[in-house]
Amino acid sequence: MPPAADLTIRDAQQQDLPAVGALWNEITAQQGRGVGHALLQAAERRAAGQGIHTLVAAISGENTAAMAFHTRQGFAQTGALPQVGRKQGRWLDLILMTKTLDPH
After folding, report:
1. Distance between CA atoms of 8 and 41, rounded to whole angstroms?
2. pTM for this one?
3. Is residue 71 part of a domain?
4. Cβ neighbours of residue 99 under 8 Å, at least 6 residues apart?
5. For residue range 40-66, what is the model confidence (pLDDT) as tens digits?
6. Is residue 93 in some structural domain?
7. Domain that holds residue 63
């Protein structure tokens, strides 16, 4: 498996899901220790190196911890899609947050 910072959706689809699940479990076990910050910084560097101008995070409206994390990393809420997801019988909003990598 590639390093976590190099893991892409395509990698996840091509590899067995238990391996991806194990990676996710390891990341969440390290919550509050800077792992998410380090992963996001690596993703930002990679995206900037590929000429990507803006990152977009789509976060469940119930996930206030993820919204706070992204805010601390320089993302701003730029949109909301009300009641577009459903989980455990409840409709959920989708919050859109963006971060511009290259302001020029």
Report:
1. 15
2. 0.70
3. yes
4. 44, 54, 55, 57, 70, 73, 74, 75, 76
5. 899 999 999 989 999 999 999 999 999
6. yes
7. 53-104
